[in-house]
C-alpha cells in the first residue's frame, strides 16, 4: 500500500461486526474482535469462552490481556509479559531515534511506528497489546480518581520504572513525585492546566499517548491547538471526513501498513474518545478545549459509524457516550439527539405520567405526583454479584467487625461514628438497607410515595444501560429547560438545590465531598469483604456511560459556592488544596490580605515559574511587564496573560492595544466567551463593525443564552442597516433579557423595517409594561409609523403641507436613532408598503386605546389616534381624539410660550377641519367658541405669529359658515 491510498484508509466503510452462530468456525481475527467488544462490555465470561476456541499462542496472549482488563486487574495487564516486551522495544526505539526531547505523545507515537515497522508480521498482535495497555492505564487512573477501590503506593511501585520513557532526562529517577510533576505539564492543553491533586496523572498521560497512536494515528499531539473552531461550528457526523490532525497542513502520516493495522481494531477509537473526555474533565478550567473536542469528534465519528452485534447493547452505549461527550464539551444541543438514538437502540420506552398519592406520613388528601414509567426491551434478570448480595444483607458484626462499644473505645480520640454507621455497627441495619426512619426518627417523609394506584408504584427491573440512559435524560432536562421547580421535579432531585437555599446547597455539596472517597469508611477498615463486594471491574463497568464526578471536581464546585456566598476563608482553604492559584489570590484580596497573596505567589515562582504565577504577580503588582513575561514563558500559548494584559490596556484607555491583545487571546483560546465579548465591545467603541460582528457571533455560538451579546449583535446590524439580521438577533436577546426596555425599543424599529407589525405591536405593549422602569415617553413616532403601515398601506408618500392635512409626522431623525425631540419640522420619509389586515387594525386599536388610557396628556399620541380613526372611518372618534389633543396642549402657561402656542394653533386648525366636515350647527358653534378662546389668548403675546393669524382666518371662515347655517 502506497501513500496515495491514505485517503482510502481513513475513509474506509464501517465494518459490520457480527458474531457467527457457529462459534467453532470463528477465525482468529473474529475471536480477537469479539474479545475487544467483550472488554467494552466487561464480559469476562465471553472472553473465557473465546480462550477455549484458539490454540494460537499470540491470540492466547492477547486474550489473556483482554481477560485481565475485563476483570479489573489493570495493573496486571501492564505487568503482562507481552506489554513488558512491547515496552522494552519502545524504550530501545526512543533511545535509538533520539526522541527524548519531544513531547511524550509525539515521542511514543514515532517510537511505536518504528516498532511496528520493524516487525510487520506481528502488527496485529502489537495493535491489540498497545490498545489493551492504553485502556489499562486509563482505567487505573479512573479507578484511583473516580470510583475506587484505592490502591496503596506499594502496589503500584513496580509500574513506575517502566514509565521512565516519558521523561526527557534519562538521569532523573522515575519516582511518583517526578512523574506526577511531569504529567501535569504534559497534560496541559490550549494553555490550561490539570488539577494537581489528582492521583497518578502519569497513568492518564501514558494512556493518552498510547491511545492517541491507536485511535488518532497522528504525530500531532494535543499541545498543538487546532486553528479551526469546531465547538461553535461542529461538523455533523454525516458530513464528517475523517483525517488525522496536522499542524498547518504539515505532518508526515504514519506508515500506511501501520495505519491499516490500527484501523482494523474495532474499539481503538472508542477507548481514545474515553481518554479524551477524561482529559477534558481533568482540566481546571470549565471552558471546553477546542483541541480535545476536535480529536473527540474524530474518534466518535468512527465509534457511532460502526455496526455492532444486535444481541448486545453496544450500539446504545456508543450513542450514549457520544451524547455525553457533547455534553462535556458543551456542544449546542448537548447530545439530546444522541440520547434519543441510544434509547431507540436499547429499546427503552419512557413515559412521563402522573398519579394521585401521598408523600408524608400525616398527609390526609392525595395530590398529583409525577411518575416516570420506564421499561427495558428485555427485563434485567441478572442479580447482584454474590459478594455484593451477601454484604447488602449483612451487618458489621456479622462480618466479624467490632461492636459499637468496642468501636466507641477505639474512636474516643478520633471522629465519632455517624448515626448510620452506628446502626450498622450495632447490627440493627444492613450496610445498604438503612431507612429514613432509622436515620432520622423525626422524619415526616414516607420511604416511598404512597400511590393510590398500585401500578404506579411498581418498578420495572431495567437493564443497567437503560438506567444510564435515564440519567442522561436528566442531563437533557437540565440542559434544555429553565432552572425551575418542574425541571428539578423531572430530574427527581438535583444534587444541590441551589434555587431553594444557598446555605443548604453548600451543606449538601460539602456532604457529597466528604462522602466521595475511593477508600473504605470508618466501619469498613477491618473488612476486606466490603471492598470485594464492589470490585474494580464492577465499579468501572459503566463509569464512562454516566457523568460521575471525581473528587477534585466536586471540591472545585464546593469552593466556588463558598466564594459566591462570601465564605472566603473556607473557599481559600479549598482552592489552596486544589492549587487553583488564580482563585487563591482572589480570596486573599477579598480578605484584604494582598501582602500574603504576593508572598505566596513569589514563593510559588521560586518553586516553579509558571505563566499562571507570573500573571498572578501581575494582578497583585499592577505591572503589565509580568503579563508579557507570562506570555513569553508560555511560548505564546497562555491566553490568560493576553486577556488580562488587554484589560489593563483598556483601563489605561489604550483601546487599539487592548484589541490587539484580545485578538491574540482568542486566537490561542477560541472557546473563552468573555474574551470574545470584550473584543466585540472594544471593536464597537472603535466602530470596527466587522470585527465586532465576528466577536459577538462567536459569543452567541458559545453561549446561546447570553442575551446581552445577542443585543449587542442586533445593535451592530441595526447600525449597518441590516434589519433582518438585527430582527433575528433581538428576538434571541429578548428571550433572555425581557426586562431591558432598550432592546424592546430597538426590536420595534427592526420589526417595522421588516414589516413584522404584529411583533412591533407586541413590543410596544411590553414597553408599556416596563414604564415603571424606564420612565420614557411613549414613542409616538413608532405609533404613527404603525398607523401609516396598517391603516394607509396604499399611500406612496406623506406630504407635509404645513399642518392643514397633517395627522402624523414620522421624523426619521427621531427614530434613527431614537430620541425625545418632538419637533414637527423635518423630512418625512416614504411609508413602508404593507397589506392592510383587519386583525392588525384590531390589534393596533387595542394598543392605541391602552396607550391613551395610561398616558392621557401626550398630544402627539392623541394626534396619532385621531389619524387612525380617520383611516378607519370613525369620524366622531377622530374628532374626540383631536379635541383631547388640544386639551393636552393647553397646559399651564401655554399662552406664554411661542412654541406651545404654535403647536396648539396647528392642532386647533386640524380640529376645525373635523368640525367643519361634521357640518352640523352645533358642531360649528362649538368649534367657533373653542377657536375664539384660543385666538384670544394667543393674540395677547403673539398676535403677529403666522400660526395665530392663520387660526384667526379659520375662525372668520367658521363664523361665516355658522351664519349661513342659521
From TrEMBL:
TPR repeats mapped onto the chain: 639-672, 673-706, 707-740
Keyword Transferase on entry: no
Pfam family, one: TPR_16
Keywords: Repeat, TPR repeat
InterPro entries: TPR-like_helical_dom_sf, TPR_rpt, TTC27/Emw1
Domain of life: Eukaryota
PANTHER family (UniProt xref): TETRATRICOPEPTIDE REPEAT PROTEIN 27 (PTHR16193:SF0)
Record's protein name: Uncharacterized protein
Organism lineage: Eukaryota, Sar, Stramenopiles, Oomycota, Saprolegniomycetes
